Amino acid sequence: MNRFFEVVRRDLRLALRQGSDSVMVVTFFVLTVVLFPFGIGPEVNVLERVSAGVLMVTALLASMLSLDRLFQADYEDGSLELLVLTPAPLGVVVAAKMLAHWLTTGLPLMIAAPVLAVLLHMHEDGFITLLAAMALGTPVLSLVGGIGAALVLGARRGGVLLSLLILPLYVPVLIFGVGAIDAAVQGMSAKPHLLILAAMLAAALVLAPWASAAALRQALE
Amino acid sequence: MVPAMTETSFSAKDLACVRGGRVVFAGLGFSLSAGGALVLLGPNGSGKSSLLRVLAGLLKPAHGALAWNGQSVGDDPEAHAERTHYLGHHDAVKPVLSVAENLRFWAHLHDPHAERAGRAVDHALERFGLSRLASIPGKMLSAGQKRRTNLARLLAAPSPLWLLDEPTTALDKASIKALEQVLAEHRATGGMVVLSTHADIVMPGATELHLDKFAVAEELP
What we know:
The complex is a heterodimer.
Chain A: H1 2-18, H2 20-40, H3 44-65, H4 69-76, H5 79-84, H6 90-119, H7 126-151, H8 158-185, H9 191-220
Helix pairs in contact in A: 1-6, 2-3, 2-6, 3-6, 3-7, 3-8, 6-7, 6-9, 7-8, 7-9, 8-9
Chain B: E1 9-19, E2 22-33, E3 37-41, H1 48-56, E4 63-68, E5 71-72, H2 77-82, E6 84-87, H3 99-110, H4 114-127, H5 143-156, E7 161-165, H6 173-188, E8 192-196, E9 207-210
Parallel strand pairs in B: 3-8, 3-9, 6-7, 7-8
Antiparallel strand pairs in B: 1-2, 1-4, 4-5
Helix pairs in contact in B: 3-4, 3-5, 4-5
């Protein structure tokens, strides 16, 4: 467990010192969302109608933007070999890296989302559900995305390949995330959607670190 | 945690390694006891690095087995990671972390008893003449200084088996002397060393292993 937090602390420290990744992800999120009112016009009811979808899709793309760096930097400077040879299960080390990734990308996105929701005139009933859907959905993006990041390690143009691999897997998160917000806005219960999101998170928490660890071992062979 | 040094032994039997469909070496075997050292010699591509990666557990041998105190290494990879230090071609020094931070991370990861690791880090920095550089970020280091930072990892967390892939690369004469001294002390306390090298490195009583002897004749087209 000590080792888990050691890796989280190190990745957070690296992210804070380099700074660029988190800032880039949030900036991308904000800029892209801001583009929509320009593209589809400023009518309040149109924006309100699409707000949940726009926020979730953009968050998903923004989170993917930083994924290819998850293991790439460690792979290039040899740190990954040493992380694999750490006297702890590789799944634990990978889970720590995924947690650090979520803290530096998913969490800022979650904080930025309600502000942008105001901009898109989202109905106020949807705000709490938006936060809940982001809280459950963004960790899934980091976890599932981590598998893809490990799989494309060492490939040329890994970023493009990664999006082809991972985007289809993000669809369930999108459907139930948007579903939850729409339900809340229309005065229905968002609970079933959120529960399914929670189930996806639980499954990803257990499976993704180990799948990713297997892919990493393969990449280092 | 480290078993009684007097009875430790590390042996390989009938190892074979296949890379990219080519048999790099086959039928390779050796045995090391406490305080022993093995120097891997051979031309480029004879499989020195591959052998070290096999010994570290990064690469699965195509055939053969490794044993530590008579027990198969593959049964418990984490225990093997705990007693092994692997030093590869890359120096795994993060550009935005200081020398001390880089080293402390690897030391804590290897030996979670933080306080003990802290003292060992200071000692390791001193031995490789890095004390003055402790707070310098990794990106300011020269190739030789990076290599010394990587070598300091060996002392920052104790492990009986050291696997060093051309450790003298980029080192100046004084640093090679320091490394020889460290290797001698490590062996005097019952540690084992396997290293590959092209440069002259003085290791009294080391066994030499010529990898070209284990090469398999290429089939003629």
